Amino acid sequence: MRLAAIHTYPIKGCRRLDHDAARVEPWGLAGDRRWLIVDDGGVGVTQRQHPELVTLRAVPRPGGLELAAPGRPALDLAEPHGGEPIEVRVFESRPTTPALAAGPTADDWLSRLLGQPVRLAWLGDPAANPVMQPVPDGAGTSVNFADGTPLLLTSTASLDEFNAWLLESGSPEGPLPMSRFRANLVIAGGSPWAEGEWVDRRVRIGATVFRGLTQCGRCVVSATDQDTGVRGQEPLRTLAVRRNIGRRLLFGLQLAVELPPDADPVGRAVDCGTLTIGDEVELLG
Fold first, then answer.
1. Half-sphere exposure of 162 toward its Cβ, with a 13 Å CA cutoff?
2. pLDDT single digits (tens) 76-124
3. pLDDT band at 269 (very low <50, low <70, confident <90, very high)
4. Which of the residues 36, 52, 54, 183 could staple to 145 if both were Cys, CB 3.0 to 4.6 A apart?
5. What is the percentage of the chain residues whose pLDDT exceeds 70?
6. Are 146 and 28 in contact (CB under 8 A)?
7. Pick from 232, 215, 212, 213: which is nearest to 223 by CA?
């Protein structure tokens, strides 16, 4: 098995960025979901509410971020070190996370794009944001503004079998691209759904070791075309028939990063390696 693709999403819910290589941090890939759009109650705004976020392109630069979207002038932002502290939630049901406000210029730009008052927050200290489920000893306990675990892995073999199911069913929506599943890491080779057997196991990609935490239950975002924002019924309809396990529609594996033996448990200032397309993927046990 080999690593076939690497993706990050600098603002949660925004358009993906594709990478040939990416540095691994205890809370995920460098630059991934360090920014969050929130409503006037401090709760995250994502493609669940605004599928048009597929058009928002956020490109990190050293010390900042550039935003672009159709019909809007580009906006360059600096990381708001020393900015206004605010408390935000990824979801209404989650505990608050301390963040820093990006400022009124960013808020106005995004409010105009989405047609509602929103603010942009930056996660200045990911180590202060805990993973939202039990994490094995030796793995990082911090997360970025992801749904609850640092990284998501998917498999081309699983997607191929899923698309075969779509063809068999006569669905007009197939085949689906991997972009629907908004993974960080995509692997090629192996058997369909093998990644589902990696829960509670160690996986080495290149020189970095990860821990499988849970299979990923899919939501309405996976039914959103990541180029147009148009929402359909797939893959949720077919997953409900074929991959409905414990009332969760499963596709992909959520991961935590295994830390070096002498690392702080929250993982501050730890070098966890770099992933490169083509890296070997090995199940360690």
1. 27
2. 999 999 999 999 999 988 889 999 999 999 999 999 999 999 999 999 9
3. low
4. 36
5. 98
6. yes
7. 232
Provide the CA 203 distance to its chain's centre, in angstroms. Answer: 18
The tokens for 83 are 């900015």
Beta bridge partners of 153: 185, 253
Residues 62 and 75: beta-carbon distance below 8 Å? no
Q: Give yes or no for a contact between 114 and 3, defined as CB atoms under 8 angstroms apart.
A: no
Sheet with strand 274-276: strands edge to edge: 28-29, 21-25, 274-276
N- to C-terminal Cα separation, the chain: 15
| Mean pLDDT along residues 169-194 | 96
The mean-pLDDT minimum among 5-19, 97-111, 192-206, 261-275 falls in 261-275
**CA–CA separation, 239 and 222 (whole Å):** 11
The model's pLDDT over 243-268, given as tens digits with 9 standing for 90+, comes to: 999 999 999 999 999 998 777 655 56
Q: How many CB atoms lie within 10 A of CB 35?
A: 27
Give the span between the Cα atoms of 232 and 223, in whole angstroms: 5
DSSP code per residue over the chain: -EEEEEEE-SBTTS--EEESEEEEETTEETTSS-EEEE-TTSBB--TTT-GGGGG-EEEEETTEEEEEETTEEEEEEE--TT--EEEEBSSTTSPPEEEEE--HHHHHHHHHHHTS--EEEE-S-GGGSB-SS---TTB--B--SSSSSSEEEEEHHHHHHHHHHHHHHT-TTPSPPGGGG--SEEEESS-TTGGGGGBTSEEEETTEEEEEEEEEEP-GGGGB-TTT--B-STTHHHHHHHSEETTEEEEEEEEEEBPPTTS-TT-TT----EEETT-BEEE--
